[in-house]
Amino acid sequence: MTTIVRFAPSPTGLLHVGNARTAILNYLVARKNGGKFLLRIDDTDTERSKSEYETAILDSLKWLGVSHDLFARQSERAPAHQEAAEKLKASGQLYPCYESALELDRRRQRQIASGKPPVYDRAALNLTAEDRARLEAEGKRAHWRFKLSQKKVAWKDLIRGEVEIDTAHLSDPVLIREDGRFLYTLPSVVDDIDFAITHIIRGEDHVTNTAVQIEIFEALSGSAPAFAHHPLLIGAGGEALSKRLGSLSLKLLAEDGIEPMAAASYLAKTGTSDSIVPFATMDELVAGFAMEKIGRAPAHFDPAELANLNAKLLHLLPFAAVEARLAEAQVGGAAFWEAVKANLTRFSDVKDLWPLVVGPITPVIEDAAFITAAAELLPPEPWDELSWGIWTKAVAAATGTKGKTLFHPLRLALTAREHG
Ligand code: GLU
Hints:
By secondary structure, the protein is of the alpha/beta class. The protein has helices spanning 17-32, 51-64, 78-90, 101-113, 129-137, 185-194, 207-221, 250-255, 260-269, 282-287, 303-316, 319-328, 334-340, 349-358, 368-376, 387-399, 403-415; strands spanning 4-7, 36-41, 70-73, 94-97, 143-146, 152-157, 161-166, 174-176, 199-203, 226-230, 233-235, 299-301.
């Protein structure tokens, strides 16, 4: 059976590191198994979904190197969702309810006050045809709930192992709002069935949804795909990232000079048993990928660690990999790249370093005698990568300086810069 996975972002914001990691894991599973990757835009929430966000998500995935084989937009699949809803209504598994949000809230408060779990009491199941007709005549419109089996739903999660959730502890979920719009739960299952998804790989914030969705899968098609729920990303200090996600969009990482493969390497490896090192290509990440390497503990996302990985990646890049970008930046070629790459934290630093090579530089000389002595000690040309060490050792020996007192005046004289 061909592996078919999907990544299903809601276009309600930019792609952030948390969902980018879900995208990468799905992508790696697809590629590793010679399968297919569906990019599905979950835009059933018409109030919050925006086409600008869809475009931004597509751009970010492209930047990251996560390409898709199939594409779907949930808003274009309404007839299929409707048909599934009718099927569930016909079998009595989807039932109409008329309680207002206020009424439901009052009931919940009463349940909590009397020490009961705040689970929907299924009062609407007792409505007769006459009750419904009366409510409709009063102008009320039904929202529709899925009747859970109230049994234990179990699955073998590819990351979490055996999971069991008793749906008796859950409220029957609302699948259709009173204005007729679908919530995410049912369209997701219908699309997963229609696109023959074999593995649903998503964050562990969806574990409870999975119990509900397995029941819907079974009601509609008799079986459910495999599931893998990965732990969520947390900050370096263990804090939840959710509040700061706005500042952790891929768009911002790109603007900050993070290389796509640094981001991809980080997100593919954080929270796994592999160490986080830079990979040059997606193919290398695919080769080293195995679902079993994904741990159960939360995965860390530390911007400082990513910046560090970015620098390491740049230091490894051969000239051929950056030739076009150097030309575009209007700086030097192979010799320049080999000379400066170990100094880079982001690629754009090349622009800053280029004037040091071609000048003009106005040397800053604070101690003329020291600099004259140093100049006289310069080894004969041609210089190579050893010349600097030979020279500075000789200057140190002749002038009795070391550390900052040695290097700082040399740097100022050669580059006119305080740091670097
Ligand atoms: N649109 C849902 C989300 O972003 C998709 C969840 C899923 O993978 O089923 O949370």
